[in-house]
Amino acid sequence: MIVATAGHIDHGKTALVQALTGIDTDRLPEEKKRGMSIDLGFAYQPMAGGGIIGFVDVPGHERFIRNMLAGVVGIDFALLVIAADDGPMPQTEEHLAILDLMGVTQGVVALSKIDRVDEARIQEVTAKIEGLIAPSGLAGAAICPVSAHSGAGLDDLRHRLDEAGASLGVRPQTGNFRLAVDRCFTLPGAGLVVTGSVFAGRVAVGDHLLVSPDGIEVRVRSIHAQNEEAELGVAGQRCALNIAGSGLRKAQVHRGSWLLAPQIHDPVPRFDGRLRVLPGEAGALRHWTPVHLHLGAAEVPGRVAVLDGKSIAPGAEGLVQLVLDRRIGALTGDRFVVRDNSARRTVAGGVVLDPFAPARGRAKPERLAFLAAMDEGAPETALAKLAEAAPVSVDLAQFSTAWNLTPEDRGALIELSDLVVAGPPDKQVGLLPGRWRALAVEVLAALKSWHETQPGKSGPGTDALRKALATRLVLPVLEALLADLVGDKKITKQGASYALPDFMPALEGRDAALWKRVAAELEAGHTKPPVVHEIASRLTLQPAEVAGLLSRSARLGLVYQVAKNRFLLPDAVIELAEIAESLAAGAGEEGFGAAAFRDRSNIGRNFTIEVLEYFDKAGLTWRRGDGRTIRKPMSEVFGEAAD
Ligand SMILES: Nc1nc2c(ncn2[C@@H]2O[C@H](COP(=O)(O)OP(=O)(O)OP(=O)(O)O)[C@@H](O)[C@H]2O)c(=O)[nH]1
Ligand SMILES: [Mg+2]
């Protein structure tokens, strides 16, 4: 369990942590000299029922709120310290508001310094505190009167912390690893060490991680979890990781960096979220207000774009886009706090809904519907709503990053949903089955009208078809849809073009009659057909006439032009392509040579060279030196052989 202190300056946070753990967390000479905490302090204490409490002691001074903010991210439990003599003070309220905005709902109030006051004062301040915390996430939290000096009440407080630790148990370790760096230092003999709270997942010695937002690769050499040497670090622990990486320099890692599993590294210059303005604000938060954003342990200037309306009133909530001066790592569900431009006042805070927000059209109705779906709190329900709200499909790759899903989580989620899934993992999309069927119907209709309006032309390629559809489709969806339709024999693929199965591109008039005779010549030659002038002389035609006809036929997909004066029927091309595939399969990494192809195909040396160069150009093969390997499967380049 991670516990952070909170409360006004001098109210006894550090003294209390020392009384509980024996550790003075004020380590800096400056802190000693001034008698106040400046930066975060850390202490660890075993719990009665097993496990270890990690304490983060935060400074109370208003000038160091940014340090406090970095300390309370990723914590489980708040220890709000309020001095009995002073009672609640400005930073008591500000810290309480921050804890609330950060979504901290577990905590206890330590009513400190009771050795300085009488019983009546304790009663009076207790009542005040009850009123203060009532509207916050800490409503109803226990209020423990304590004195760090006399030791009064400490056993009761310890007991409550142990109880909280026991009832919290172990945090679920779902998701990819994510740690918000709050310190980075060099240890002699070990090298770079970073510390922070683990937000999600787990890390093991030897893991490869990225430092975000810069994307520097590092390896984990050793782990301290809750101050003890460990093989694993998990969500809900404070960890110190000794990291190494070629080219890694200390300056690149600092408070505000993330250590991440590589698959969730995707820093963003803006994100959409739901923002609540503190009720104590004097005026509404207006569109495009400059602010300081705190997210994770990071702080970055930016502006707030209000998405639904022109401003958000004090105490009210609204959808916003945070437009940042620098990229940061943010994921759905992350809490953030917004302070005013001069970083003097906490103004608002909220939760990230979509880290991959668009710069344009951010306030369009479909975007607001998207955000409402992402605001479902859990990926299962969010996905279901998104699929309903999406004009066509949900980007599952982006969705998985946003919700920090591991590949297994993602697989399970897709399994649970009834979505049709298409595309490779990094471009995977999901659609409602009904929408998928409607799109198939739309594709068939588009092909039909294509054929009707241009009977003399072969069917459209993927790009042309995409433009011909009324629904705008992303490429993975269209490609999967077409593959599905080809598989079901509802459409055919010839070369790069698609057609309805019964469609034959029509040559018109004299061309049609001529084609029959020319095709017979090509057919007879099969994989070694006569060249243009040979066909011309056999049929007593002009070579130019035959060449013209053949290039018109090639445009219709009836023949392939392999060389300047050599044309092959689709069946012959496929037969030769099959030879290339089988030779490549049998050859090593260096590929197959031209001689092997000539021997197998028996088409002669010169034509072999022409055919192979044509295959290179068409994208079937890949030539390196004297060898060729397969670049794209034959079926993708030339379609399937006719039955
Ligand atoms: N009498 C009395 N004094 C206390 C008690 N706890 C803390 N103090 C004194 O109050 C002063 C401030 O205590 P700290 O623990 O440094 O206060 P803090 O909340 O950590 O202050 P910042 O970190 O600067 O916000 C010190 O002089 C402490 O000795 C207590 O229980 N009784
Ligand atoms: Mg202190």
Structure notes:
With 643 residues, the protein is of the alpha+beta class. It has 20 helices and 32 strands. The model has no long low-confidence stretch (mean pLDDT 93). The chain binds guanosine-5'-triphosphate and magnesium ion. Guanosine-5'-triphosphate (GTP) binds next to helix 1. Guanosine-5'-triphosphate is lined by residues 7, 9-15, 36-37, 59-61, 81, 112-113, 115-116, 147-149.
Low-confidence stretches: none
Small molecules (ligands, ions, cofactors) in the structure: guanosine-5'-triphosphate, magnesium ion
- Structural class, judged by helices and strands? alpha+beta
C-alpha-based Rg, rounded: 34 Å
Q: Major sheet: size, sense and barrel closure?
A: 6 strands, mixed
Range of helix content: 25-40%
What's the structural blueprint in terms of helices and strands?
Layout: E1 2-6, H1 13-21, H2 29-34, E2 41-46, E3 52-57, H3 65-71, E4 77-83, H4 90-101, E5 107-112, H5 119-133, E6 143-145, H6 154-168, E7 178-187, E8 191-200, E9 202-204, E10 208-212, E11 216-225, E12 228-230, E13 232-234, E14 238-244, E15 258-260, E16 268-277, E17 285-286, E18 289-295, E19 298-306, E20 311-312, E21 317-328, E22 335-340, E23 346-354, H7 365-374, H8 379-389, E24 394-395, H9 396-402, H10 407-416, E25 420-422, E26 429-431, H11 433-453, H12 462-468, H13 475-487, E27 492-494, E28 497-499, H14 510-525, H15 532-538, H16 543-555, E29 560-563, E30 566-568, H17 570-586, H18 594-601, H19 605-618, E31 621-624, E32 627-630, H20 634-638
Parallel strand pairs: 1-3, 1-4, 4-5, 5-6
Antiparallel strand pairs: 2-3, 7-8, 7-15, 8-14, 9-13, 10-11, 10-15, 11-12, 11-14, 16-21, 16-23, 17-20, 18-19, 18-22, 19-21, 22-23, 24-26, 25-26, 27-28, 29-30, 31-32
Helix pairs in contact: 7-8, 14-16, 15-16, 17-18, 18-19
Bound molecules: guanosine-5'-triphosphate and magnesium ion (MG).
